[in-house]
Design goal:
six-stranded mixed β-sheet, 274 residues, six-stranded parallel β-sheet, alpha/beta
């Protein structure tokens, strides 16, 4: 039962109606006995209204604010503090309100790295990152931290160059199948594979081989064309739900101070998407 003491956590995005975060977090609160203390809600907000959102967070005492696309960069100027990791990444997906002081964090990089480290030792492995947006920044940060050999490619070449400069890694203007075949890991951080482009893949199937690891940050559909092609060719695939899960478990702990019930959150996510 919710009471006057129940604390609000909120995810904002544009759009946000598809988000599984409320389902995942609210099931976790119930699992650890926090359902009376916390509730997790969602609100679709245009990026132009960010100042109004932050004013509301302060006024209403919202304890945790989750930012998804397109708010991860737009929120930064309105915060009181930025965690050094989030500052380096240049994007915030989690805001903690401590007595009116708003501090931004980034848990996306954790969400990407935990699933990868379950499958491979990243040091010195060749990793191709497709994309150069906010998600790519978090992924590249984590990969560089793990001492992987990273190459970035992006439709807008200048963005790939800029990201590569910031994190002291490589970029390529274009990629072909022969180059992709040399990579140990290929990560899609773009929206290719989401509706209405669900039948598209960011790379040619000819660049996929047995022994590679393919990771997609897209989680709806559960198995993208990119991952389907990988499975066909004997690659190890990592669904986007894993990144969503582990950024969410880290976020849960930031907001509540309680260890996250990982298995419950994973089960809820999979039930919500399959």
């Amino acid at each position: 039962m919710k009471t006057a003491q129940t604390k609000i956590c909120l995810i904002i995005g544009d759009p946000v109606g598809h988000s599984l975060s409320p389902l995942m977090h609210n099931s976790a609160y119930k699992a650890v006995g926090l359902e009376e203390k916390f509730v997790y809600l969602a609100s679709s907000v245009p990026v132009s209204k960010m100042k109004s959102v932050i004013d509301a967070v302060r006024t209403l005492g919202i304890v945790g604010l989750t930012c998804t696309v397109p708010h991860k960069i737009a929120v930064i100027p309105f915060l009181d503090e930025i965690d050094p990791v989030a500052k380096k990444i240049g994007a915030v997906n989690s805001v903690v309100n401590t007595n009116g002081v708003l501090k931004g964090f980034n848990t996306d990089w954790v969400g990407a790295i935990i699933p990868l480290k379950k499958r491979i030792q990243l040091a010195n492995k060749k990793v191709l990152v497709i994309g150069a947006g906010g998600a790519a920044r978090a992924v590249v940060y984590g990969l560089v931290k793990e001492k992987a050999s990273v190459t970035i490619v992006n439709r807008t070449v200048e963005k790939a160059k800029q990201l590569a400069r910031e994190f002291t890694c490589a970029h390529r203007d274009t990629i072909d199948a022969d180059f992709i075949l040399t990579q140990d890991v290929v990560i899609n951080t773009t929206s290719v594979g989401m509706h209405p482009h669900a039948d598209e893949s960011p790379i040619s199937p000819d660049g996929i081989r047995k022994g590679q690891i393919l990771m997609d940050i897209v989680y709806a559909p559960y198995e993208t064309e990119f991952l389907r092609q990988g499975k066909k060719r004997g690659a190890t695939i990592i669904h986007g739900t894993e990144m969503l899960l582990f950024q969410g478990t880290a976020q849960f702990e930031l907001y509540t101070g309680v260890p996250a019930p990982v298995e419950v959150m994973e089960k809820t996510l999979l039930q919500g998407i399959l």
